Amino acid sequence: MQKDKRENYFDWDETFMQICRVIAKRSKDPHTQTGACLVNNKNIIVGLGYNGFPRGCSDDKLPWKREGDFCEKKYAFVVHAEANAILNANANVEDTRLYCTLFPCNECAKIIIQKGIKEIVYEDDKYHNETVWRASRKMLDLAKIKYKQYTPKNDLIFKKK
């Protein structure tokens, strides 16, 4: 006799978004922690990333501030989670899906397009109306890259702060 299958298990979108939440906890950014997960068509993870400074650049010697002159702010130095996932990939990323906790900015969108990523699943789009993210959506639409917002079906491992 067959046992009944467990209910309320994570589907693939939920699984990979949970992994994004976990890898985001590696970020030392005091304001925003983001995570990204690249998955091939067999649902195998090929890359993970979180927002942080480039390898070899001490996070004790670069700023985490959001205000001030360009070189006094984190934005001059931080590598975004999406870019890190692509750069850290252990396989070809063409035709993969990118899961990310925050909708990709225009700079990450350029990389996503150039690398041939076919779909983006994102959790939050809190900067939707800002110019950087409007530019991102414009490029993604022109490149015919699909994107959709993730809606949780179960409790997330890590809640937003």
Structure description:
This protein has helices at residues 12-24, 81-87, 106-115, 131-142; strands spanning 35-39, 45-50, 97-102, 119-124, 146-149. With 161 residues, the protein is an alpha/beta fold. The chain starts with 11 loop residues before the first helix and ends in a 12-residue tail after the last strand.
Low-confidence runs: none
Strand order of the largest sheet: 2-1-3-4-5
Total helical elements: 4
Main sheet overview: 5 strands, mixed
Number of strands: 5
The global form is globular
If you average the pLDDT, what whole number results?
A: 94
Q: By helix and strand content, what is the structural category?
A: alpha/beta
Portion of residues within helices: 25-40%
N-end to C-end Cα span: 46 Å
**Compute the gyration radius: what is it?**
17 Å
The share of residues in extended strands comes to 15-25%
Put the structure in a nutshell.
The chain is an alpha/beta fold. It is 26% helix and 17% strand.
Give the topology, please.
Layout: H1 12-24, E1 35-39, E2 45-50, H2 81-87, E3 97-102, H3 106-115, E4 119-124, H4 131-142, E5 146-149
Parallel strand pairs: 3-4, 4-5
Antiparallel strand pairs: 1-2, 1-3
Helix pairs in contact: 3-4
